[in-house]
Amino acid sequence: MHPHLHTKDNKGCEEVMAILDECHARGFLYKAVGMCNGAKNNVNMCLRAERLERTAKNREAAKVERAKLKSKFQEIDANS
Length: 80
Fold this sequence. Notes:
Order of helices and strands: HHH
Mean pLDDT: 90
Oligomer: single chain
Structural class: mainly alpha
Low-confidence stretches: none
């Protein structure tokens, strides 16, 4: 199972998502016998890479915010 495909966070995966959509358009039987599994795996790997990149950026931003908050609390403690 994968997340929603067409969101602002998944712009880097549009090409592999289009390939998966083309594969699914070939019909139910084509999907049912596993002919789209390779394309689906490529989509999953692309989405995973996008998610890992996004979480790394979020983690770095959180570290910066935590450092700011910690320094403010230290300043408050020093002035108390």
